[in-house]
Amino acid sequence: TISEENKVIHDYNNLILSLPRENGCDTQYFYFYHGFWCPSTLIQSVNSFQNNFHAKDSDIVVASMPKSGTTWLKGLAYAIVNRQHFTSLENNHPLLSFNPHELVPHFEVSGNNTDGQMPQIDVPNMVEPRLYGTHMPFPSLPKSIQESNCKIIYICRNPFDTFVSYWTFINKLRLKKSLTELTLEESFERYCKGICFFGPFWDNMLGYLKESIERPDRVLFLKYEDLKEDVNFHTKRIAEFVGFPFTEEEENNGVIENIIKLCSFESMKESSENKSGTAALKIEREFFFRKGEIGDWVNYLSPSMIKKLSKVMEEKLSGSSLSF
Ligand code: A3P
């Protein structure tokens, strides 16, 4: 008889071997699992999240494609929801001592957990409203989230900028592991085929867009570019959506501006906490802050690449109301 643990390993191996696979972004392959691409090391935690997670109606979920502004949105959501606990936003605020990924955990990327439990975090006993993140596409989320009344704030970003952010980020991770850089061309070809963490990007975006149209009370669909253009407006919108609207008094006292400042790229990048150490998945905190600009892709992509990704976007997104 094989032990329980061996059985899990055996079952996962069978599952993994049955999945479509492509070269990944480090030494691991990417597998197409439940409608998205991810490395084998995540399959177990994804599976555990899908099968064991119990959503609460009060939950607030920050959903995104990687490199679309997740860190920023997590910071804003955390500051909005918890503002009554912190009288001063400038002193002693957790966002000054922790990276947003440490305050707003991602359950499906929590590493190798073999016991089916969410590691480190006492999930059922997290203070309500529980605030957590996900990169999984909407149809792949645990049924319990899909069927609950929890609030989902989704952020996406122009695929050109997202790709450049992704490629530079991946290479920082590779460098840390003493791996050679992935070429821009190679990564770009895969990205255009949808092969990247939690991609294809079009499925990820369109799934949440559809849900936000059908159930606007459930899913708030945001774009990085819109937040950049008018962060004040969107901060108020997020606060209303999650059920923590700003009072007139708060507005008059500059609470919104303080939150925006606390979560701004400049203050987050410059905070000493984010300049060293690691956040979730042992990723260097500083890797989450690069330029924080719109349009930096012009410095990287060739005319033929621009043409190619434009065509992919046209093909995949033109039937929707989504444009960049
Ligand atoms: P760039 O690589 O283009 O600079 P994610 O948080 O989903 O991993 O996305 C990372 C991208 O968001 C990076 O983009 C990063 O610099 C940018 N970013 C991080 N924090 C930000 C903030 N507070 N405001 C604006 N952009 C931010």
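^ adenosine-3'-5'-diphosphate complex. The chain is about 45% helix and 10% strand. Residues 111-119 have pLDDT under 50 and may be disordered.
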